Amino acid sequence: MRKRSRFELSLLIALVVVLALVTAVVLRKKAPPECARLLPESDGIVYVALKPVRLATHFDRTPVHRDPDYQQFINATGFVFERDLDEVAFAIHRLPDPHGPNGPVAYSEVFSGRFDGPRLTKYLAGVSTSHETYLGHDIYDIPVEGRTLRVAILGYDLVAASNMPTPEQIHSILDRYHTAALPFSGPSLLAQQYSDVPLLSVAWGIGRIGLPFSDKPDGTGNLQLMGLTLPFAADAPVLASLRFVGSLRLRVEETTASEAAAANSAESLKTLLSIFQTLQQNMHPDAVNASDEEFRQIVNSVKIDQKNSTVVLRATIPLDVLKKTLASSPQQASLPAAP
User: Fold this and answer.
1) What proportion of the chain, given as a percentage, has pLDDT over 90?
2) Separation of alpha carbons 170 and 132, rounded Å
3) Given pLDDT bands bounded at 50, 70 and 90, which one contains residue 1?
4) Mean pLDDT of 306-310
C-alpha cells in the first residue's frame, strides 16, 4: 500500500507540474509583457526584448563609437543601453496636425532594465526645465529637439517617457502602473491583436504602424520608404514579428479591406521582390561584397502568400547579419547633456 501511495503521490506531482507548464504557456500567449501593458492608448505598438538578443549575439561586448552626449549620459547615470536595457515598448500616436511643430506622430515608451535610481534622478533633475508630481512620482520635462520629453521613474527597473504635446499619456502610464499592471490589462490594441503575435517572438509590432511613412498628410494612402512607394495602405492593420528559430524569422501580416485588395497587395510585393532579385543578379561579381551576399540571401528567402483578405510576408535573416547590424549601429542618445 505504501509503494502505491508513493506512486500516486509522484503521479500527482507530475500532473501538477505539467499543468503549471501548460498554464504558463497559455498565460504567456494571452498576457502581453508588462512594458506593453503599461502603455497608453495609441495607433500602434512596437515591443523589443533585448535580453535574448543580447544572449544570442553578445552585441553588448562589441566596442562601439559613442556619441559624446551619450557618453556623458553614461558617465552621469551609469546606464549603458546595450548592456542594461532588457525590454522596451513604444506606443505610436498619430497627431491631429501632421504639419504642426510636433510633426505627424509622437511616441510614448516604457523601458525595463537595470537602473541606478539616485544617479538617474539626479541626471533628470539636471537636464529638466520643470517637473510635476503625479501619484507620488516626479515627471521631468526635458526639451529635446524643439519638443518636450516627459520622463518618470516608475520603479527600480522601469522608466517611462513620452513626447506627446500634453502630459495625458505619461499620466496614463502611471495610472496603469498603480493598478498593479494586471496580466490582462493594458491598451485596447493589445486586447485586439496580441493573441495573434507568434509565441517566443523577440520583437513585434501591431496596429497601424506605417503612419510615419504615409504619403498623405492625414495618414492614409500608401507607405513611402526612401522614396519608394510600398504596396501597403498606411492605415491598414499590420502585425510584424521576429522569432529566433536557429535563425531570425521575420513575419509581416497585413489585413486589407477585401480579398481583391489583398491580391493586389500580394502581386505588388512580388513585383518589387522580383525587381530586387533582378538587380542583384545583374551586379558585377567584382562589385559584390559580403554585405551584398547576405542581403541576397535574405531577399531570396522571402515568401509572399495571400489568404482571403490577408497578405503574409516571411523572410529568414541569418544570425550573423543581426550581429553585424547591432555591432555597427552608432550608439547615440537623444537626451541633452547635463550641465
Assistant:
1) 39
2) 11
3) very low
4) 91
Q: Are strands 137-144 and 147-155 parallel, antiparallel or unpaired?
A: antiparallel
Kind plus residue range of the DSSP H or E element containing 57 = helix 50-57
Cell of 320: 550573423
Beta strands in 267-320, from DSSP E residues, in sequence order: 303-307, 310-317
Cβ(197)–Cβ(36) below 8 Å: no
Q: What is the pTM of this model?
A: 0.81
CA dist 241 and 233 (Å) reads: 19
d(CA 248, CA 255): 23
Buried residues in 192-206 as b, exposed as e (16+ CB within 10 A):
ebbeebeeebbbbbb
Q: Give the mean pLDDT of 21-44.
A: 76
Q: Answer with the residue of higher pLDDT: 211 or 159.
A: 159
d(CA 143, CA 107) in angstroms, rounded, equals 15
Segment (H or E) for 324: helix 319-328
Domain residue ranges in the chain: 32-328
Whether 153 and 159 have beta carbons less than 8 Å apart is answered as yes
Looking at per-residue pLDDT, the higher value among 329 and 12 belongs to 12
CA atoms of 68 and 135, how far apart (whole Å): 35
Alpha carbon distance 28, 241 (integer Å): 16
327 CB-side CA count, 13 A: 13
Least confidently predicted of 39-53, 77-91, 193-207, 266-280: 266-280
**Whether residue 20 has pLDDT greater than 60:** no
Q: Which residues of 226-265 are buried (b: 16+ CB within 10 A; e: fewer)?
A: eeeebbbbbbbbbbbbbbbeebbbbbbbbbbeeeebbeeb
Predicted confidence (pLDDT) at residue 4 exceeds the cutoff of 90:
no
Contacts of 76 (CB under 8 A, 6+ apart): 119, 122, 123, 126, 338
